[in-house]
Amino acid sequence: VLSGLTGESELAVRSGGVFARRLRPAPPRGTPLGREWRPGGTVLLAGPLDETATELARWAARNGADRVVLTEPATGLEGEPGVTVQAGLAAAASLLTPATVLNGHAVGGPGVNGHGTGGAGVNGHAAWVDGQGGAVTAVVCTTAEAARALDGPARTAGVPVFVMPAPARAAWGGDGAQAYEFFAALAEERSAAGHPALAVAAGLKEPGDAVSAIRQALHQGDRTLVVADPDWAALHADGHVRLLEEIPQAAGTDDESGEAVDDAAAFRRLLSDSPEDEHRDIVLGVVRGEAAAILQLPLPDAVEQDAEFFELGFSSMAAVELRNRLVELTGIEVAADAIYDYPTPAELAEHLLAEAMS
Helix axis angle, 144-157 relative to 177-192, nearest 10°? Predict the structure, then answer.
C-alpha cells in the first residue's frame, strides 16, 4: 500500500482490510417523466448553491413547491416567485420544529413563543410545519455542516426527500471530495435506518439535465449518484485509472503522447524517480500487495517475503492470476511458470527488478 503501486488514487484503511473505490455505470433509466419526483409544500435548501442546486431550487419553485426557502442568497434566484431567504442553519432547523394543528391552524412551532407544543391538542393532530403552515417535503444540503445540522430534525419530521449535492469533481478527489464522502456515508446510513437520502455529485453543461437525473434517482431510491460528462483522458492522466476501470467510456483513454495511461507507466515512473537502493522494496511491495489481494489478506505485510507461495495458500490457478496481475501492473513479461522458478515473494521481486533494469 505504502509503495503507491496499488494503482489506486485513494485507499481506505479499515480494521477489516484495505478498500478501494470504484465508479460503476448507473443502470438504464426507464422512468417516465411523469413518475419522477415532484415537490410540494416547502423545499428547504441549506448552504451556498452551485449551478445544479440553483437550478433545482428554480425548478422546484416552478413545479409544485408552495415555497422554496434558502439559507443564503443565490445568484439567479433574485425575484424568483416563491423563493425566499431565511438566513442561517438555526432558522432552517426551525422550519422542522413540531407544531400542533388545531382546526387547520398551526399552534406552537416557529413564531409562537419560540417553541412547539409537541403534541395533539383539542380537535387537532400533531403535524410538522414551517412558519407559514406548509409541510417541509424536501431538504437539500450543500455542505457537511448543513447536513449535520438538519439530518436529525429531518428524520424526526419524517421529511421524505433529503438530497446532498456536490460538484462532480468531488467524486474523483477534486474540490469538495471530503464533503461528498461524508454525504455518501450519511446517505447510506440514513437509508439503512429507513430515512431515504441521496448524495449526488453533479456537473453537466446543462444544469437542467442534472436536475432531471436527480429526480429520477429519487424515484428509483438511489443513495449515491454521479452525473457528469468528464474529460476521461484528463482523469486518467491524474491517476484515476483504477477508479474508472468499470466505466466503458473511460476504457482505452490515451494521454497526450498517444500512449495508454496505465499502471505499467506508473511503475516505470516510480522506479525512475526513486533512489536505486529503494527499487527492491518497491518491487517487493508490488509482489506482496498482489499476493495479498489474491489471498484476500488485509495488508501486503501479511505476506511473508521469504515464505513459499504454495505454503502461503497459492494454487496453480492463483499462480497464474499473480503472473497476470504482475504483467498488467509492471509491464514486464513474466513467464507463466515464474512462480515455480522464483517460489518466494523476495525471489520473484529480485527477478522482476532484474527484468525491469535490463
Answer: 10
